[in-house]
Amino acid sequence: MIIHVFVDPSHAWGKVKKSMLERLGVDREISPYSYQRGEFAYLEEDRDLGVFIAALENAKISYKFKEHRTDKDSHVRDMDMFKPESRQ
What we know:
single chain; alpha+beta; 6-stranded mixed beta sheet; 2 helices; 6 strands; 32% strand
C-alpha cells in the first residue's frame, strides 16, 4: 500500500481510503483534526496517521510513504473535517 503524504511548512497528512479505515476498525478513532474529500481521508500526522499505521502493522499490511511537499499551505487545509460515516 502506498500512502501519499502531503506536507506543508507546518504539518502533514496521509491520504487513505475511508473504506480502509472502516475495514481496519479505526474509523471512529480518527479525530476531527484530520480531513476528508470524497472517498479519502487525510490523516493528520501527530496522532491519526499513527493510529492507522498501527492498525496496518497489526493486520500485517505492508506500506510505503510517498511525500508531496509544498512551501505554501497545503490544499488539504481547505477540505472538510473528518467524520466517520456513523457520526455524520
